[in-house]
Every structure is written in structure tokens, then in C-alpha cells.
Write a structure and sequence with these properties.
alpha+beta, globular, Alpha-Beta Plaits, 9 strands, 2 domains
Length: about 290
């Protein structure tokens, strides 16, 4: 039997974007999104027809920074085979806006999906939240640890009928510069909508006394009892990394950032610039 080669090649690629200029990652009619930008570029490069879609590893809201995410596109094999990764990268980068980055591209099996077998790392900069109070580092480490493990995260998401809210957090640790707490790093196989921003709000509440330890634990361990711990803004959330089995990691050192000084509102403007700078610096060092 003669094996017929597929007319399309499934291409996995890694990319990032600055959250400020996007209404999230997923397509929204009439709004600028990361998926929409990439689809437009792929169509202009004649990689795809206009009815193709991109599947992404992680979905992010408006304002959330993304150092590295991943996606797949089924593109014309007649385009991919002659150009390979080098040609793909050049064609896309020539059209990519300055607030996006492209790391690499490779062909994967036609059944491979980016949301499977992946771990996601998020950073949240707590010190930029106005009500944050610097706690003792030992106490903060203990607070972070209560979120580790498999839990029903119903109180840390918007609940919709028919959805499951059980997710596993593999790590939750302080993001520090010496003994100063910048925020936290959280790693998991998957997250529910707004989970990290609600964890951030719980930690801010613990720091300033709005929430006590038992209330936060009850929100986590008693999902059928509605407990609202608040929601922190998206501006200080970064999808730092997504890693997959059998795909080489593109790591980057998590930076130490400028501590709050002077008038808080003035420092916030500096901090917003730093949020962008840490992505651009990482992209520059990885050749993206």
C-alpha cells in the first residue's frame, strides 16, 4: 500500500507577547489578541487558508504578560517542506510587531496538542498591589504551601455549570530578592480561569490582615461553601514558561526587580515598564 503524505504539516511554535496591547490570547471579534495577530501573519505568509485556527497551550486574559506560550498551526506542507524552521521564522519575524516574540518552530505529529503533557509557570508581583504589606518570609512560605497539591478551586474561579475545577499545583514559592518578597511563583499542569489572580488576592489579604489563615484554607478545602477572597489585577501577572515532555526547554532566569521607593503611584509607573523590560530582556537573550 502506498502511504499518502498529508497535505498539511502540524507546526508547533513558541511565542510571547506584552499584555498591555492585547485583549488576551484568544480570538475576540474586533479586538486585538495574540491569536488574531498570529493568524493574520500566517495568512499573509500564505501558510494557511483564512478558515484555519491556532490551538494554544495556555489562555491568558487582557493585560497578562506572556514570556513564553506555545501553539500549533496546521499549515500547507507545500510551504513548510521547502522552508523548514529557518524560513518559517524569518517570514513570521519580518511581520511580527514589536510587542510579540517568536522563539522557534518545529513539525510535530498530526495528533499532538499543546495543552497536553505541559506544565505552566506563572509569576505574580504582589508588591505592586496597593494593599500588600511585606510579611515575614517564613510566614509567607507557609502561606504559599497551602496551595500545593490537588484541590477543587471553585472558590478561586468563576463557577460555570458542567465544568470541573479540580487542578493540581506542583509548586508555589516566594519570588524574592534576598529577603524582600517581590511576589510568588506557581507551577501547575493546568489552571482554572483567574486562579492565580485569586491566589494573589488571598496572599495580599493574609499580608494585611483582611483574611486569616483559616478563612483561606476553608476557601480551598470547602469548595461547596462560597468564600470570596477577591481578585488581583492582571497587570502584575506573567505567564513565564510552559514546558512539554520531549521538547527542549527554553529557560530564563527569573529577575530581581526594583523595590518600591518614593511615592507609590510614581513607582507603579516604573514597575509597569519593568514588567515589559523583563520580557524584552529575556527575548533578547534567547534570540527571539
Amino acid at each position: 500500500m502506498i502511504q499518502v503524505e498529508s497535505a498539511t504539516a502540524r507546526i508547533f511554535f513558541r511565542f510571547g507577547h506584552i499584555g498591555e496591547g492585547f485583549h488576551g490570547s484568544q480570538m475576540q471579534p474586533g479586538l486585538r489578541t495574540a491569536q488574531g495577530e498570529l493568524l493574520d501573519i500566517f495568512y499573509k505568509c500564505k501558510f494557511i487558508d483564512n478558515n484555519k485556527a491556532i490551538q494554544m497551550a495556555s489562555r491568558t486574559d487582557a493585560g497578562v504578560n506572556v514570556r513564553q506560550n506555545g501553539g500549533i498551526v496546521d499549515m500547507k506542507r507545500s510551504k513548510w517542506d521547502p522552508m523548514g524552521e529557518k524560513g518559517f521564522m524569518k517570514a513570521v519575524r519580518d511581520r511580527l510587531p514589536g510587542d510579540m516574540a517568536l522563539f522557534d518552530a518545529m513539525e510535530v505529529e498530526e495528533t499532538w496538542l499543546p495543552r497536553r503533557n505541559a506544565t505552566r509557570t506563572y509569576l505574580y508581583r504582589l508588591e505592586a498591589v496597593e494593599k500588600w504589606k511585606q510579611p515575614d518570609l517564613v510566614d509567607f512560605k507557609n502561606w504559599c504551601q497551602i496551595f500545593v497539591g490537588e484541590h477543587n478551586w471553585s472558590n478561586f474561579s468563576r463557577v460555570e455549570e458542567g465544568k470541573t475545577y479540580v487542578r493540581e499545583v506542583l509548586e508555589c514559592d516566594p519570588w524574592v530578592d534576598e529577603n524582600r518578597i517581590i511576589g510568588f511563583k506557581i507551577i501547575g499542569t493546568a489552571f482554572v480561569w483567574n486562579q492565580v489572580r485569586r491566589v494573589a488576592s488571598a496572599l495580599v489579604g493574609l499580608s494585611n490582615g483582611t483574611h486569616d489563615f483559616e478563612k483561606v484554607k476553608a476557601a480551598l478545602h470547602q469548595p461547596n461553601q462560597y468564600i470570596d477572597l477577591g481578585l488581583c489585577p492582571p497587570d502584575w501577572l506573567t505567564l513565564w514558561d510552559v514546558e512539554w515532555d520531549n521538547i527542549p526547554t527554553i529557560g530564563a532566569e527569573i529577575p530581581a526587580l526594583t523595590k518600591p521607593i518614593g511615592v507609590f503611584k510614581r513607582w507603579l509607573e516604573l514597575a509597569k515598564l519593568e514588567q515589559k523590560q523583563m520580557l524584552h530582556t529575556s527575548w533578547s537573550t534567547t534570540g527571539s
